[in-house]
Specification:
The chain has 580 residues and is mainly beta. It has three helices and 50 strands. Helices cover 4% and strands 50% of the residues. The chain is flat, with a radius of gyration of 28 Å.
């Protein structure tokens, strides 16, 4: 419970089945099945159960249901002529007692291996911590295990070891205390982050750290506890962690401070946001207490020394990426003691001096609230930026220029956005925003391509940070413009997919029809099979690219004209016909 996953907190428990599928799954309490869901991804085949005390339980990644539910589900497949289902039976249809077999374990949906995903929820579907129910099968006397800690600056005046940047340090263990012997010199307002895991006895799995309490010089200034995760805001995990570091390095650092826009209900008892100010002198002892669901305890100890802002930078040096934007602070470097900043929509440039030097290289900080730096000149060096507009959160906003129009809904941003736009029209690539800034609702872009090669046979694809791997986004064409929606900023490219999906028959006889399907670019969108014109259910495992038939009437053989249509997201379709 509370383990950090991409885009969400892991809710509930993953119960291992030792690599085996088909083990019986029992009702946790008396109740009735109120929802049956079958999906390609997510929980795959899943059951949702309502109990008398108002709580609910979820059973995911199932192979199959009990006979009554399985028969009902199969009938619904054929009534709706759909593989994916989301149905809500009447409460009197499927009632079970505690301990009744309701399903069999599997590996469906976005499962990484055979197991049962089990959740306990409130009546509003907020996920509760199941470990608070004291399951006798679980043994845990292992305290949380932190591995690294980071100190981050809050505003342009902040310094860490004399620089503006994020300082990441390894931790060394003595019992259940983790320290770094370095004394960090700090100035101004800073925050603390840590990377760590929790473990339980007799398993190699890793878990989330549920409770954190931070003290500075013996006084508690911050705490959070993951006890309840509302389903609709689980994406706020991208504010709970250092999202930028996660995206760039895959390291999952948990913040010991609360940033603007974070709506997670973990901080009700916290005395403050967790940021604290370090004056120019004095020693500040920081202790971070870590607890798991069984109150196993470990702690991190750090020492910060107050220092003037203008000290000579010291090792270990914080990480400062060139042209870095950290909240409202833009950082750039040059081999020049001064710089000229040209502000967007302003006629007069601003001369600024370097804030500090590292090895002869000068570093400058610029407060973005003073204006968007269109370009910076340092001697002969020109730093060109692509900032086009400042967009405030919590408001519906439309902005357009000669590159694109963007519509940002009020619930998409958690903080002020300094929007960037650029295009490489010859390569059909467009860049929108900073991919290290999380979005919490889809944002739409409308583009009128200037490259004449591009027509409505093209679709939009996002490009991965590493390797430029394209992922299908899509879009709708109208009057020579394409509009598409995305839940992440980054680079996008126009591509054509003119190739039909692949299809290979593995088995074709009176009892079963099995195929392997795939698509090299846009991905599989839909498939439909018929026998003598009547719809035939094809089960689907997207990870293996397998589809296989399941007849409504098992005693009736597959006989006659068989047709399978497989379509990709670009609209290319492959048709297979055969006579059985």
């Amino acid at each position: 419970m509370g383990e950090i996953r991409p885009g969400h907190f892991h809710g509930g428990l993953d119960i291992k089945t030792e690599g085996v599928e088909g083990l019986p799954v029992y009702a946790a309490e008396d109740g009735y099945i109120y929802r049956i869901k079958v999906s390609t991804r997510g929980y795959g085949r899943a059951l949702y159960m309502q109990h008398r005390d108002g709580s609910r339980t979820l059973y995911g990644h199932l192979k199959s249901f009990d006979d009554r539910l399985e028969s009902y589900k199969l009938q619904k497949h054929y009534e709706e002529e759909e593989f994916e289902l989301d149905i809500f039976p009447d409460e009197n249809m499927f009632r079970y007692k505690k301990g009744d077999v309701i399903a069999f374990s599997g590996n469906t949906g976005s499962s990484g291996g055979p197991h049962l995903h089990f959740e306990i929820r409130r009546n509003d579907d907020a996920v509760m911590n199941p470990l608070k129910y004291n399951f006798n099968e679980i043994r845990d006397n292992i305290a949380p295990i932190p591995s690294r800690v980071a100190i981050v600056p809050k505003n342009p005046e902040s310094r860490i070891n004399g620089t503006f940047g994020r300082l990441e340090l390894p931790l060394y263990r003595s019992g259940n205390t983790y320290t770094n012997r370095a004394v960090i010199k700090a100035h101004g307002t800073v925050g603390i982050e840590f990377q760590g895991i929790d473990r339980a006895n007799m398993t190699s799995n890793t878990y989330g750290i549920n409770k954190v309490v931070m003290e500075v010089n013996g006084k508690e200034i911050y705490r959070h506890e993951i006890g309840l995760v509302p389903f609709e805001i689980t994406r706020m995990i991208n504010l709970f962690v250092d999202y930028k570091t996660w995206q760039k390095t895959y390291k999952r650092f948990q913040r010991c401070y609360k940033v603007d826009g974070n709506l997670l209900p973990f901080y009700d008892e916290s005395p403050s946001s967790g940021f604290f100010t370090v004056p120019e002198s004095g020693l500040y002892k920081v202790v971070i207490h870590l607890y798991d669901s069984y109150d196993n305890h470990s702690k991190i100890e750090l020492n910060l020394q107050g220092a003037p802002q203008n000290i000579t930078p010291e090792v270990p040096l914080p990480k400062t990426d060139d042209d870095l934007l950290n909240e409202n602070t833009y950082v750039f470097s040059a081999y020049s003691p001064t710089a000229t900043v040209y502000i967007k929509d302003e006629t007069e440039p601003v001369e600024i001096e370097a804030d500090y030097k590292v090895g002869g290289e000068s570093f400058f900080t610029w407060d973005m609230r003073l204006g968007l730096p269109d370009s910076v000149i340092c001697n002969a060096q020109v730093i060109k930026n692509n900032y086009v507009n400042t967009i405030m959160p919590f408001a519906n906003t439309t902005y357009f220029n000669d590159i694109a129009e963007v519509k940002i809904p009020q619930n998409a941003l958690s903080d002020t956005l300094y929007l960037e736009m650029s295009t490489d029209a010859s390569n059909k690539v467009y860049s929108f925003g900073d991919e290290d800034i999380p979005l919490f609702a889809p944002v739409s872009f409308t583009i009128k391509p200037t490259n004449r090669e591009i027509d409505n046979s093209y679709q939009m694809y996002s490009l991965s940070r590493r390797g430029n791997h394209p992922s299908y986004v899509g879009g709708e064409w109208k009057d020579g413009k394409i509009t598409f929606k995305t839940r992440s900023f980054g680079r996008f490219v126009f591509l054509q997919d003119n190739v039909m999906p692949s299809l290979r028959v593995i088995r074709r006889d009176a009892s079963s029809f099995v195929c392997r399907i795939g698509d090299g670019l846009s991905g599989i969108s839909d498939f439909r099979a018929t026998i003598n014109g009547d719809w035939l259910l094809m089960q689907y495992d997207y990870r293996k690219g397998l589809i296989w038939s399941e007849r409504l009437n098992k005693s009736k053989p597959l006989k006659g004209t068989l047709e399978l249509r497989v379509k990709d997201n670009a609209g290319n379709e492959r048709v297979y016909r055969s006579f059985l």
